[in-house]
Amino acid sequence: MRRLPYPALLTVFAAFVFSLTGLNANDNSHSNWHQFRGEGARGIGTGDSLPEHWSANQNIAWKVDLPGRGWSSPVVWGNKVFVNTVINSGESEDPKKGLYFGGNRLDIPQTIHTWKVYCLDLKDGAILWEQTVHEANPETSIHLKNSYASETPTTDGKNVYFYFGNVGVFVFDLDGKPLWSKRFEPRQTRHGWGTAASPILHGNRLYLLNDNDEESWLMALDKNSGKEIWKVEREPESNWSTPYVWENDLRTEIIVPATNKVASYDLDGNELWSFKGMSSITIATPYSHDGLLYVSSGYVGSRHKPIYAIRPGATGDISIDETLRSNDYIVWCDWRAAPYNPSTLLYEDQLYVLLDRGMLSSMDPKTGAFHFERERIPDNTAGFTASPWAYNGKVFYLNENSETFVYKAGKSPELLHVNQLAEDDMGMATPAIAGNRLLIRTSARMYCIAAD
Question: Are strands 287-289 and 292-296 parallel, antiparallel or unpaired?
């Protein structure tokens, strides 16, 4: 760490800052993971002793059974872990593991469901507070492998924001005091699959996306009051990708990848640029690195499964012909490389791709050239839905059997070992990294993993 002047003054200032967040200035084991995939939506941990080995009983700091079902990720601020779930008073059909067709469930459940939010203690998993935000029969259906709690919450260290796409947004302070809420009319999604796009914070605004088959929109709310600042009507097509706020050298823009089309908006909701050429279903979250924006869309049933690297400054339609690889603003495009459910991962100047069926690729993020392509993960028997993450020179891939395949980061695939959690668990949620602790949410429980 770079040595700064006036160490005594800085120590006092740091103690003051940590006191505001509830952290100990002498304890580097905690950091904040405030949104889906953490800082910059990148999925990279920075703790100096993060765990690399674990099992159902090894290196488990704590585990807590979670009621109901939710495929959202946890988020962390200081010593507090926030997570949401929806509890069915009747019986829910258990999804099969893996990638398959036939998961459509158009019938709306006729049982009471309870939408709940929790705050857990990062130290021991104790429930610090819980709130019920909605209780009723659902008004829309979901895909067998979706949940009614698939949107990851977000926090600014003062308040925490829980968004349930077809119900509303519910805001609490970090001690569980309700602050404000805003309800939304439920809308029909494609084949009744439900919603998944998570909320994002930037400055004093909360951005919400609801792309569906009836009335799609992107909305900016005042994060302190819930007052609507603007709302942009969008083409009614269902979409499951979380937007991304791209702060580049030229401007700040809101990137919304979606079915068939990506659009960028300024902070007043005006469209800046767009392009067509996505797959017919988009789930992955964009991110940026070294001045470029990375967008991917890889539905297995589509002819196009593109990954794009985009430079800032575009205006208007920047669509690229499918016979080409680049244009003025698209630095490179690979039309067949993208995964379906997982987001890609850019770590130590390599772009890693995890395909749902368990194949790995590594690309040069500046050129799109492959270091290796579609190398199969050995002895894998399940699909991959969670996005990969990285730290300590290693890349981690969690499958639906709750097995994590640990690879050495590099230009050739080198499997180091496999970490197996309980066999009755199903792993679809993307983990969170809180300082030196890893949080993995499964179908049954939350694990907090820490190195010995």
Answer: antiparallel
Structure tokens at 201: 């914070």
Secondary structure (3-state) at 121 = strand
Look at strands 113-121 and 80-88 and give their pairing: antiparallel
| Cβ partners under 8 Å of residue 267, min gap 6 | 202, 205, 220, 252, 253, 254
Closest-CA residue to 250 (of 261, 266, 262): 266
CB atoms within 10 A of CB 90: 9
Taking alpha carbons only, the member of 226, 227, 228 closest to residue 218 is: 228
Phi/psi at 320 (nearest 5 deg)? Answer: -115, 140
pLDDT tens per residue across span 207-220: 999 999 999 999 99
Q: Are 171 and 180 in contact (CB under 8 A)?
A: yes
CATH superfamily of 34-450: YVTN repeat-like/Quinoprotein amine dehydrogenase (2.130.10.10)
Return d(Cα 46, Cα 67) in angstroms, integer.
Answer: 31
- How much of the chain is in helix, strand and coil states, percent to nearest 5? 5, 40, 55
**Spacing of C-alpha 192 from chain mean position:** 21
Domain boundaries, the chain: 34-450
Count of CB atoms within 10 A of residue 267's CB? 17
Exposure of 259 in the CB half-sphere (CA atoms within 13 A)? 17
Q: How many CA atoms lie within 13 A of 110 on its CB side?
A: 1
Please give the pLDDT value at position 26. Answer: 34
Residue 121 tokens, joined: 């203690």
Q: Using one digit for the tens of pLDDT, what is the confidence trace for 69-113?
A: 999 999 999 999 999 999 999 999 999 888 788 998 999 999 999
Which residues, 6 or more positions from 403, have their beta carbon under 8 angstroms from its beta carbon? Answer: 380, 382, 418, 419, 420, 421, 427
Q: What is the DSSP string of 165-225?
A: TTTEEEEEETTS-EEEEEE----PPGGG----PPPEEETTEEEEEE--SS-EEEEEEETTT
Structure tokens at 179: 């602050």
CA 259 – CA 240 distance, rounded (Å): 9
Under a CB-based contact definition with an 8 Å cutoff, are residues 426 and 402 in contact?
yes
* E strands, 324-426, in order: 330-334, 345-347, 350-355, 359-363, 370-376, 389-391, 394-398, 403-408, 414-420
- The reported pLDDT for the residue numbered 98 is 84
